[in-house]
Amino acid sequence: MKEQSLKQKTVGALLWNLLDRMGQQVLLFIVGIIVANILSVEDYALVGMLAIFTAIANIVLDSGFSSALIRKQDATEEDYSSVFYFNLSISVVLYAILFFAAPYIAQFYNQPLLTDLTRIIFLSLPFNSLSLIQNTLLNKKIEFKRLAKINFISLLISGGCSLAMAYNGMGVWTLAWQPVILSFSKSALLWMSNKWRPKLIFKLSNIQSLFGFASSLLLASLINSIFTNIYSVAIGKLYPTKDLGYYSQGNKISLMVISSIYSSLQAATYPIFSSIQDDKERSIRSYRKTIRFTAFLTFPLMIGLVSIAEPLISILLKKEWAGCIPFFQLTCIAGIFTILTSINQNFIKVYGRSDVIFKLEIVRTVLIILGLLVSLKESALVMIGIQTLIQAIIYLISIIYIGHSIEYSWTKQLKDILPYTVISVLMWGLLVIPEYYIGSYYTLLLTKMTIGILFYYITNKYLGSQILREAVEILFKQKSK
If we measure between CA atoms, which residue out of 93, 13, 473 comes closest to residue 275? Predict the structure, then answer.
């Protein structure tokens, strides 16, 4: 693949992924805001209690096979069919386990309603398993335009159903049925749009060969998921129910932006970097540019959200949700380090060093446990503040560790992201000033957004930012097509 061809392919993939993720999140955001203004904080807290089980189940369901199949250049029909039947079987077993475990989950939280909620929410697992290979094939072929359309339509269906259920007084059941409808819609659309069908082939040897790479990713993802979602368990068990509702909502809103960025970058760059993995110098050069672009986009966006959090949430949500503002701000800051760490780990996967990712997750786990022990007697907000600090420490450890593996030192990476960090912090300082002079939330939000965008653009322009210049060129080229 020629350099120019690679650049065009990467740009196209990134744009369609960003459009896909942003389109999804905008739709989710609009539906979520409307539904949140109908339902109660306690409704969200109940579903938040199941977050750790949802995350673990979905990771086990994938088992790292998607990444393994995308990375494998010569994947065969036997590979795809074997993984399909394996994942389908796993989904049935997982649902059965959660179905029978539901009363014990409800007993742990002392929330009887969780028994039925668990049994409904996890109906999404079998539907997700049916779409896993279809989704993987489209990612491998870099057909993100088709994926974007499928994702948007399925979200439109589930969003419409959610609004109808909320308006008709279904309460927390709205949140329970939404992921089931979404997974069913997406699976149906993927099967209708993709001609691939599983053959009557299952070979355990194929599963074993793929699992050699996937196993470390699975273990790393499991550890990551357990100890990321352990905060929901701790808050739900130790603090008032409303605190979990505030944390769940604040984290959910920030996660819409965070996941849009890193999932877009991961999905777009992983198959492309996999295709040039044998040219190490070229890979690292492309990777450094990805890190700079990530910092250029992430720092102003997340720090800007911290600044506008109070007027934004006060306008969008009823007063009952005011308690989620500081949780939202902290998770936005943590999101900066989450995104950068994820992009670093994504590149490591290309070189088959899933063992490095696993080791990093072990370190992360130890830090999270220590953080939890320190904050157990403190408030839920202090607990999440310590979580944010841990994310920053994990990022620093990861770039030191990864620097030894791929010849991209931690000092070079910090130097690459430093300009965007400094400009974004200066922007945040500037955005504090209007708070002393403007009383209206609407005016304050508009003023802050205008000042922030102009300051960041003009400062980058004045300093001659190459990333800004390339981003503008790309946008105008795409627009003119």
Answer: 13
Task: Provide the residue type at 174 as one letter.
Answer: T
Q: What is the pTM of this model?
A: 0.74
Helices and strands (H, E) in the chain, number of each type: 18, 0
The number of angstroms, rounded, from the C-alpha of 381 to the middle of its chain's C-alpha atoms is 22
**CA within 13 Å, CB half, 210:** 29
- Ramachandran category for residue 318: left, alpha or beta (phi over 0 → left; psi -120 to 50 → alpha): beta
Residue identified by tokens 């949780």 is: 327
DSSP character string of 331-356: HHHHHHHHHHHHHHHHHHHHTT-HHH
Across the range 129-149, mean pLDDT stands at 75
**Which phi and psi angles does 56 have, rounded to 5°?**
-65, -45
- Choose from 80-94, 290-304, 337-351 the range with maximum mean pLDDT: 290-304
- Integer Cα distance of 295 and 411 in angstroms: 15
Angle, in degrees to the nearest 10, between helices 3-36 and 144-167: 0
> Is residue 380 within 8 Å of 243, Cβ to Cβ?
yes
Which two structure tokens, joined as six digits, stand for 377?
């007697």
- Phi, psi angle pair for 453, to nearest 5°: -65, -45
315, HSE (Cβ side, Cα atoms, 13 Å): 13
Alpha-carbon radius of gyration of the chain? 22
What burial class does residue 198 get, using C-beta atoms within 10 Å of its C-beta: 0-12 exposed, 13-18 middle, 19+ buried?
middle
At residue 225, what is the residue type?
A: S
The C-alpha atoms of residue 348 and residue 375 are separated, in whole angstroms, by 33
Range of weakest confidence among 145-154, 237-246, 418-427, 428-437 = 145-154
* CB-based contact 336:299 (threshold 8 Å): yes
Contact present, 453 and 305 (Cβ < 8 Å): no
Write b or e for each residue in 279-294: b if 16 or more Cβ atoms lie within 10 A of its Cβ, otherwise e.
Answer: eeeebeebbebbbbbb
Distance between CA atoms of residues 389 and 386, nearest Å: 5
pLDDT (average), residues 175-189: 89
20 Cβ neighbours under 8 A, 6+ residues apart: 144, 147, 148, 151, 152, 264
Sign (positive or negative) of CA dihedral 269, 272, 278, 282: negative
Tokens 């700079």 identify what position? 292
Q: Sign of the CA dihedral 405, 406, 412, 418? A: negative
How far, in whole angstroms, is CA 185 from its chain's centroid? 20
Amino acid code (one letter) for 408: Y
Distance CA 258, CA 172 (A): 25
